[in-house]
Amino acid sequence: MRFHVPLKLSKSRTLKITITTLTLCTLLAIGYNYTHLLLPAELNNGETPVKVMQEPPFQNTSKTNLYHDKRKGNDVLLTLVRNTEIDQIVKTIENFENNFNSKYHYDWWFMNDEDFTQEFQERVEDAVSGRTKFIKIPEELWSYPDYIDRKKADASRKAYSDANIMYGDSESYRFMCRFNSGMFYKIPELENIEYYWRIEPGTKFNCEITYDVFQYMRKYNKLYAFNMALQEDVRTIPTLWNATMEFLEKNPRAISENNLAGFVSDDHSNSYNLCHFWSNFEIASTEFFKSPVYETYFDFLDHKGGFFYERWGDAPVHTLAVSLMLPANRVHFVANTGYYHKPNRDCPPNDELRDALHCQCNPHNDFTWHKYSCVHKFFSLQNLVRPDSLEHISMVYPTIFDTIMNPKN
Ligand SMILES: Nc1nc2c(ncn2[C@@H]2O[C@H](COP(=O)(O)OP(=O)(O)O)[C@@H](O)[C@H]2O)c(=O)[nH]1
Ligand SMILES: [Mg+2]
Q1: Against a cut of 0.85, is the pTM above it?
Q2: Domains (ranges, CATH) in the chain?
Q3: What is the DSSP-derived secondary structure letter of residue 348?
């Protein structure tokens, strides 16, 4: 079954929706907190500070501050990891501390579906310059919902395994993808967390990150940040696009104006082009995921059963939501980090830029601007200048340019 949902709203339809929405909003505004609305107001592209808005997108309603420094938000580095991945995570922490966190000392929280061992906790605590927290995931966030037909799920894993699809036979991989899609922010410990930066064991950052990305996102009103983007194996998500179109047909208000629909579809929403933000690197506001629009979307997908009957990944699920349900200018591309997650690497192609960021990587191995990468689509779609040289960065990201030229020690 095909669904044709106009992902870019027509002018007359936009006008009708605007008038209806304005009327409704006026009525609802009295006594209704702004933070309860579906999605926040939008801004112009680029480095537009929050202060130009009439109201901040989300208010910090949390009573407790995580950090003594009140300028900081309740932001944490966040890692889902197994005890067996201790060596990989310690290496990643050391690398990330060198290139970012030794300047900012953010807390680093770890999540696991099992208890963390004493050894794991001690080695990790020694490596992190901020504080650490070790969280055992509640079982209800890492298991089958009762509407899933377990026999059908078993049969699907067998078929995926026979077809030699990566992680095809793995039950835990499916729990992990569902957890990362719509569960992690429901962990009670994360209730007051504003932005998180997801970091996986085994990943590397081979360039210096010269600015506080959390504060940058807050200042410029960004809700989601990515670094690499590529195409998904279609066999893992055969029905995800149609399920998403069906959801949007039932919930047209979930579609954002000025969205990134062109990032995920090349044929006016007939099909998914498989581009997704590679979510092993992800910085985002939990408020986006906690918003009614995302929650309704996740719940709809969860009832479809594709996390278990297929092998839906959290990357395409997050990407479809971000691309269709947020204005494009809420999305930030974190450039030039020298990021590595097997098998792809980022490495700034420009010599001057690589030197300025003390990158330790080979530009010939760069995937970010490779033709198979989806990153160029994000830029061409919006007619944005690529941040691929110092000159370009100074034009489009002047505050980031300043931090490169005057690095914090
Ligand atoms: N605690 C725990 N973490 C897991 C499990 N499976 C995957 N992860 C974590 O989830 C993230 C993604 O898994 P990974 O194996 O890297 O998948 P890939 O990046 O898609 O190849 C990593 O941070 C893993 O450490 C699991 O069964 N338990
Ligand atoms: Mg991984």
Answers
A1: yes
A2: 139-192+224-333 (3.90.550.10)
A3: -
